[in-house]
Amino acid sequence: MFYFQYLGQGGNFNNFLSQDHCEKFCSRILCSAGEPLKDSSGERNMECSPTGSGANSCPSTHSCESTSGSTTFGGVCCPRPQYVCKLPREQVRVHVPGNCGTYSNRWWFNAKTGNCEEFIYSGCQGNANNFE
């Protein structure tokens, strides 16, 4: 575990009150394609060893990407681009006030046609085959 002392002057927004808050905020930039795989609790990122040794390996749909020593095993399980691009388009749901965010235009890769296609994202759930 690494610590630093923030003196309250200068600095930047990469400054969090807890490890949990930091990981939740920054996990979205750990993977080049999609979000890190979550552990059985659904709260924390699934950690792995970038060397691929032992029990700390990722499922075949994911690969271990290094996190520069910020995790116990040195990496997190990130979706493989081949896996992401075969996921179905998120189905448009009827908006229930207070249940989801706002609708927005997004893109998804249609593996059948081999093209990126636009769709309307409802702002809730979905999957990694969803690009701005």
What portion of residues is helical?
A: under 10%
Global morphology? globular
Order of helices and strands: HEEEHEE
Characterize the main sheet: 3 strands, antiparallel
How many separate helices? 2
Mean pLDDT, nearest integer? 73
Organism: Strongylus vulgaris
Pfam family, one: Lustrin_cystein
Domain BPTI/Kunitz inhibitor: 85-132
InterPro entries: Cuticle_assoc_divergent, Cys_repeat_1, Kunitz_BPTI, Kunitz_BPTI_sf, Lustrin_cystein
Task: Give an account of the 3D structure.
InterPro entries: Cuticle_assoc_divergent, Cys_repeat_1, Kunitz_BPTI, Kunitz_BPTI_sf, Lustrin_cystein. This is BPTI/Kunitz inhibitor domain-containing protein. GO terms for molecular function: serine-type endopeptidase inhibitor activity. This protein has 132 residues and is mainly beta. It folds into 2 domains: 64 residues, no CATH class; 35 residues, no CATH class. It contains 2 helices and 5 strands. The longest helix is centred in the N-terminal third of the chain and has 8 residues. The protein is globular and about 40 Å long.
Q: Can you give me a brief rundown of this structure?
A:
Pfam families: Kunitz_BPTI, Lustrin_cystein. The protein has 132 residues and is mostly beta strands.
